[in-house]
Amino acid sequence: MGGSPIEILLALIGIAVPIIAFTWEFVLVGRRRLGYRVQMDTPVTGEIESVFPGVLPQLRPSDDGRSPELKDLSVVLVRIENSGVTTIDPGDYAVPENSRVGLHLQFPQRKVIGMAVTELSDSGLGEFLDLGSGIAVREEAGHTGVIDLPRVQLNRGDHYKILAILQRSVGVGEYPAPQIRGRIRGGRLSETASRTGVSRFTVGLIAFLAVVIAVQYAVGRFDTAPSREPLDCAAGKLTVVGSTAFEPVVRQAADSYRKLCSGSEFAFAMEGSDPGLGRLDEEGKNNPGLVAVTDGAKGVGYPSLRARPLATSLFTMIAHKDVGVHDLTLAQIRDLYAGRIANWNQVGGADLPVRLVNRTHGSGTRDTFEHRLLTEPQPVYPAATCREVRYTAPPSPTHCDTALTKDMLKAVAETPGAIGYAESADAAKTSGIVPLTIEGHTATRESVLDKTYPFWGVEYAYTNGDLPAETLATAFLRYLTDQAGKDVIRSATALPCADLPNPALCQPYS
């Protein structure tokens, strides 16, 4: 089958909807349908009586030989018809079994002073409409005249008409439209229109099909037009190593690429920026199936590695949920990590000792943190694990290092008084921690662009030397930087380097 999936879907919809609509309208709901339409609703003015003397008195019912004064009269003709495709039997009227009446023809603000059955499509209908059938005239509370109509059997296309002479009982101006009250089992009672012209159902169906055709045409034009960003698919296997902070974004982009390009396979071994660079340096020569992703530039010692900027990544300071602080100044962050602030009550928080959590040396996230926020080297703290810090009372060790992003988030969430830092999207999804604003500014793409938020870095992809154009690594990196992979980066709150108004921002520590 040719055509794009969208075109195929639209074609199926264009076929299915008319079939469903026809089945619903004419087989399910429309199979048993009782219709009515008001063919005439005309006031009788005093001018008629003056031109043709005696007409109105002839219409008046007798009342013990006396004719009451009649004025504000009207004549209404209503057609009741079987507008469905199957017979309506007396048992199809939704009324108690012992009731002879099936419908109620109502005239709000008018009372009935005379009525007659004026037309039968079949003379056999007369037996359902004689004096013993239950047809009657009455008035309901609220000044509403009513003609009770019997349970008439109507074959397909059958109809009868009711002519009523009415007098206004209350109100002024135009009369409210006549109404029929009742229910049909397994069908419906509805007002019908003249059979001339095209029905609203048909017009709606034609309009729907026209929209489907127009969308198919537009999709076809779009699919056949040259793409501004053609997707280069390549087969093979690619192993990605490096930053744990950017790992969720790379994994999501790889899943998206794999769905579009069959034959592509991805593996991940994310253990931190520096370990990733080390592995790429040792194993990546003449190996186009290995790529490293880092938070920041590679540093010294890797002369053969080639960089490609991917995106600016947002980081945030995080703290344990009970510290009672939601914002820090740059000076307070520096004092905390320099050991000059030992308790959170010194910055307006709870009476809790400060427990510092860092990433290990060689982490790209730690390098970004120290370069962007600190102005002096951190003190050398006694070696301790985060578990030891968690359960040791001050002034014992209050500092620990974590190797991975997930370890940082876990340590801060489980250690009362802890403070650390992490990629902002990961922090937002972790319970037990509080992301901290910096001098009132939140980690957003806009705050990076207007230079009000200081804690961000550049994510790089590294290869060992230049790669052949036909490899999966080349195609995937192009997908991330120039094609639909940019949408994945944006969805993770990062900012693709290609979107920056000033490309220099994507240089290390610009």
Automatic annotation (TrEMBL):
Keywords: Membrane, Signal, Transmembrane, Transmembrane helix. InterPro entries: PBP_domain (IPR024370), Phosphate_ABC_transporter (IPR050811). The chain crosses the membrane at residues 6-30, 198-219. Residues 232-482 form the PBP domain. Signal peptide: none annotated. Pfam families: PBP_like_2 (PF12849). PANTHER family: PERIPLASMIC PHOSPHATE BINDING COMPONENT OF PHOSPHATE ABC TRANSPORTER, PHOSPHATE-BINDING PROTEIN PSTS. This is Phosphate-binding protein.
